[in-house]
Every structure is written in structure tokens, then in C-alpha cells.
Design a protein that fits this description.
The protein has about 400 residues and is an alpha+beta fold. The protein is about 40% helix and about 15% strand. Helix 4 runs antiparallel to helix 6 and helix 9 runs antiparallel to helix 11 (about 360-375). The chain binds flavin-adenine dinucleotide (FAD).
């Protein structure tokens, strides 16, 4: 079994052969992937060493200490957090080899073509049609809220391939080339002023059958893997003690003794304790995760994450007093990543509103926890046995 010591030794050898100061960034990242030091819990030959997932922090720490370039994880979060584990679990050997390396190095950005105007929480209602034509599928429909589609080379795409069976059964999952003819990406301006996400129109887009992930009609099963991983990617991120937003809040508090009232102090301390609990719970969750297959506990982490982000950014605005009412950032840009820590309190406050919607709304996550963790009776589902084409829309 690979130990932390083994990994430190491997990173040392790697750095001796690839000096981060003189090696080209992309060359360095590709070589790191080939050495199995990209995501150590992935299989050997695919950027990993079949090691325990929690050892990743050892490797990342060693590279960071040596001043090595990273793969800009926040820019390529959808690829790393959602597309990669799905490809690993459902992709063929050929697909894994083709996609995972440039995904990890950040050469190819990925986006997620799931939500539609009529299908968000109820994703299985989606209507984007894929019709088989020889070795290809012809895809027509509209997706919405697609983060970073404007940067993406590939998308993970769920489609309706059989409208005559109940909604969960007639879906198929593909990798879609975002540069293919018929893909039209249009910006959607958000509360923050910028357009981090998009609407995506698909008009007769030809997707080779070789790009299918999983069997025809099994898209729901494949999509579940993506969604479970998405919740862990959003809610289960690693951070140091008093890192992230709670660190910013605590710093503001320390630097402004004039703000100290017993009420604010109590709220800050409660949030600090909640943030620390969430951090430790996320760390335990990551340790327990088998690659590619997290369970419903990721939903609980994502739910807690959204609540905390919104409460912390709200308190930060209050601490800013009258200045908290100002927002000077309302400029239309097409950002490459969500930068909560690098931007101002106003941006953080507004952007955090999306945390309880993206990756599954808090209401839907509560349903999942109620049914799958607590074993409470499930919501009535009257459309389970009705063909998708006969559902009211
Ligand atoms: C910042 C951001 C980024 C996003 N990025 C992407 C992306 O890259 N790709 C992508 O495909 N999607 C993306 N989304 C879309 C996101 O997944 C959906 O917005 C989300 O799933 C909710 O769907 P909806 O907007 O259609 O709302 P609806 O499903 O219409 O929900 C409306 C309201 O009804 C509630 N509700 C719905 N069903 C139930 C229920 N059964 N029980 C109780 N309450 C219920 C919801 O909680 C919500 O409050 C993004 C969203 C945001 C905010």
C-alpha cells in the first residue's frame, strides 16, 4: 500500500527531474500526470497510483512548497469534480485515455449540459432529443445555466433517446464536442453583473456513438454518478483551519475592535464553530470516498456548505456597516472561475445566493437526506410509470 512517505519520495524524485522553475508549465503538468501524481486515488496509467484519496493533500502540499505550477483547479472544477469521475466509472478504456489527461492538465475545459428550462430539480423531465443516425446521434434541444460553456471544449450531456418509456428510463449520456456545428453558446447575465453561465442551444448536433458514456437508456444512472460527485466537489472541498470565508470574517473582526458587540461576537463564534465542524466533516467524507462513487452523505455536506456560505457572507456585509450597501463590481465580464476569496464582500454576498441552487437546491437535498439517509417515506411520485411523451408539460 502506498504511504505518505512513498509519495513524498516520489514527488522528490519527480521534482529533481522536472525543475518547476525551468520546466514549461504544461510540460510539467503532463509529466506530473504521467508519473501518477495528479490525483493519486485514480488508477495507475490514468494520472494516479491507486493510493488512498486522503494522501492527495500530501502530494499537493509537496508540490506547492516547491513552488510548482498547479492545474488551476477552480477554472476546471466541472471537469475535475464531475466529468472525470463519471468517465472513470462509465467510460471505455479508450475514452478514459482520450479525455482524462487533458482534462486534468486544464488543456481542455469541461462544462455540464444537464439543466433545461423545463428540467432542473426534476432533471429526469429533460427533453433534449438525441436520435440515432447510423454511428451518430443527432441532438436538438436547449440547455440552461451552463457554467463556463464559453470556455469549454467538451460537455457532459444528458439527452432523451426514448420518449415512449417513463422518464428515468429513456435517457442517454454523451460527451459533446462544444466546437461541433450546431452548438450555440449565449451568455446569461447574473445577479453579480457578470455572465459566468450560459444558455446553450443544440441544433442538429452530430455526436458519434463512440462518445456515449454508459448504455443507451441508462443516462439516469450515469447522471446520478455525476450529481453525487458534484455535491462532494462543491461541499467537500479541503481547506485549512480558519480558511475560506470564515478566515476573512475572523480577520475583519480582529482588525476592527469597534465592531465588537456581544451579539455580533456570539454570531461570529457560532459560525466559526460551524465552519470548523463542516471542515472536519468534509475531511472525513473525502477519506471515506471510493473514487467515482460517493453516497448521499455528499448531499448533507453541500447543504451545510450553502447555508454557511450565505450566513458568513451576510455577516460580512453587516460588519462592513454602510459600506456593505455598496456594490462597485457590476460589470459584465465572462469570468474563467468563481473567485469568492479574491473579490469584495458585495460579490461574495451576491454569488453565495447561487450556492443553495447550483448542484441541487437545498430543498431537494433535504428530500434526498430524508429519504436516503434517514429512511423517511418518499415523496409521492405519480409519473414513475407514465411514458415521458405523455407527461404534462
Ligand atoms: C450558479 C449556478 C451554476 C449552475 N451551473 C450549472 C451547470 O453548469 N450545468 C447545469 O446543468 N446546471 C447548472 N445550474 C442549474 C442548477 O442545477 C439548477 O438551477 C437547479 O438544479 C434547480 O433547477 P431549476 O433552476 O430549474 O429550479 P426548479 O427545479 O424549477 O426549482 C424551483 C424551486 O422549487 C423547489 N423545488 C423543486 N422541486 C422540489 C421538490 N421536489 N421538493 C421541494 N422543493 C422543490 C426548488 O428547491 C426551488 O426553490 C447552475 C445553477 C446556478 C445557480
Amino acid at each position: 500500500m502506498t504511504t505518505a512517505e512513498d509519495l513524498r519520495a516520489r514527488v522528490g524524485e519527480f521534482l529533481a527531474a522536472h525543475d518547476p522553475k525551468t520546466t514549461d508549465r504544461l510540460e510539467f503538468l503532463r509529466a506530473r500526470f504521467d508519473a501518477g501524481l495528479a490525483w493519486v486515488h485514480y488508477p495507475a496509467g490514468l494520472g494516479g497510483l491507486d493510493a488512498a484519496r486522503e494522501l492527495q493533500s500530501v502530494v499537493d502540499g509537496e508540490f506547492a512548497a516547491a513552488g510548482a505550477p498547479d492545474n488551476n483547479p477552480r477554472r476546471i472544477g466541472i471537469g475535475l469534480g464531475m466529468a472525470a469521475p463519471t468517465i472513470l466509472r462509465f467510460g471505455t478504456e479508450e475514452q478514459r485515455k482520450r479525455y482524462l489527461r487533458p482534462l486534468w492538465t486544464g488543456e481542455e475545459v469541461w462544462c455540464q449540459l444537464f439543466s433545461e428550462p423545463g428540467a432542473g430539480s426534476d432533471l429526469a423531465a429533460l427533453g433534449t432529443r438525441a436520435v440515432r443516425d447510423g454511428d451518430e446521434w443527432v441532438v436538438t434541444g436547449q440547455k440552461v445555466w451552463t457554467s463556463v460553456a464559453h470556455l469549454a471544449r467538451f460537455a457532459i450531456l444528458v439527452t432523451r433517446t426514448d420518449p415512449d418509456v417513463p422518464k428515468h428510463q429513456g435517457m442517454t449520456y454523451f460527451v459533446c464536442d462544444m466546437t461541433a456545428p450546431g452548438v450555440d453558446v449565449r451568455p446569461l447575465r447574473q445577479l453579480t453583473g457578470e455572465a459566468e453561465f450560459n444558455e446553450v442551444f443544440l441544433e442538429g448536433v452530430r455526436v458519434p456513438d463512440a462518445n456515449r458514456l454508459g448504455a443507451v437508456g441508462e443516462g439516469w444512472k450515469v447522471a446520478q454518478t455525476t450529481l453525487m460527485n458534484e455535491r462532494v466537489a462543491i461541499g467537500g472541498q479541503a481547506s485549512p483551519r480558519e480558511g475560506g470565508l470564515i478566515g476573512i470574517l475572523a480577520k475583519t473582526w480582529r482588525e476592527h475592535p469597534e465592531l465588537r458587540t456581544p451579539d455580533l461576537h456570539e454570531r461570529l463564534v457560532r459560525l466559526w464553530a460551524d465552519a470548523e465542524t463542516a471542515r472536519l466533516a468534509a475531511s472525513r467524507l473525502r477519506q471515506q470516498l471510493a473514487v467515482g462513487a460517493p453516497g448521499p452523505e455528499g448531499s448533507a455536506m453541500k447543504l451545510a456548505f450553502a447555508r454557511l456560505q450565505q450566513e458568513m457572507t451576510g455577516l460580512e456585509i453587516e460588519l462592513a456597516g454602510a459600506d456593505g450597501l455598496r456594490y462597485d463590481d457590476w460589470t459584465m465580464t465572462r469570468p474563467e472561475r468563481v473567485d469568492m476569496l479574491g473579490r469584495g464582500p458585495g460579490y461574495r454576498y451576491l454569488r453565495a445566493k447561487g450556492n443553495s441552487i447550483e448542484g441541487g437546491t437545498s430543498e431537494v437535498l433535504r428530500n434526498i437526506i430524508a429519504e436516503r439517509v434517514l429512511g423517511l417515506p418518499s415523496e409521492p411520485r405519480v409519473d414513475k410509470d407514465v411514458a415521458w411523451k405523455d407527461l404534462p408539460r
